[in-house]
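Notes from the 1:1 (GR / supervisor)

We went over the backlog. Supervisor wanted to see one worked example end to end before approving the batch request, so GR pasted a single chain during the call. The sequence is below; no edits were made to it. Supervisor asked that the structure be written out right there so they could see what the output format looks like.
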Amino acid sequence: MKKNQHKFLLHGQGAGELTDDMVEARAREIAVIRGRTAEQVSEEDRAEAWAELQGELLPAPTDSDGESAGALTRDPSEPVSVPGRQIPNMEPEDDSSAIEQLATEGVEEAQHDQMLAAREREHRESRR
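Structure output shown during the call:
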C-alpha cells in the first residue's frame, strides 16, 4: 500500500493520510454512479476521486451572503419565508375596453367551436 504525503480529514476529524486505497475506493464509487461496474474504473474516475479527496472540487468561497428562504428564528413551526419582489403599479383598465375585449374573445371562441364542430361532422360523414 503506497501512501501519499497528504493528510485526510473526515467530518473535520483527522483520518490519517490519503492513500491510494482511499482514492481507488472513491474511484470505484464514481464508476458505479456513472453506470459502470466497480471493476470498470477509468483513469478519469481516479483523477476525479483524487481531486475530490484533495478538496479541489469544492466551490470557491464568497464574500456575499446567499439568498435566504429560511425563517428568522429556529422555530421549526415557523413557515419558510420568501422575500418577494416589488412589481410596478398598474393602472386599472377602462371599463369599456375591458367589455370590448371580453366580447371579442367570446366571438373568437364561438368561431373556434363552430370550426371544430364542422370538422367533426365532416369526419363522421367521411366514415359512412
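Supervisor's comment: Residues 3-54 form one domain.
Batch request approved.
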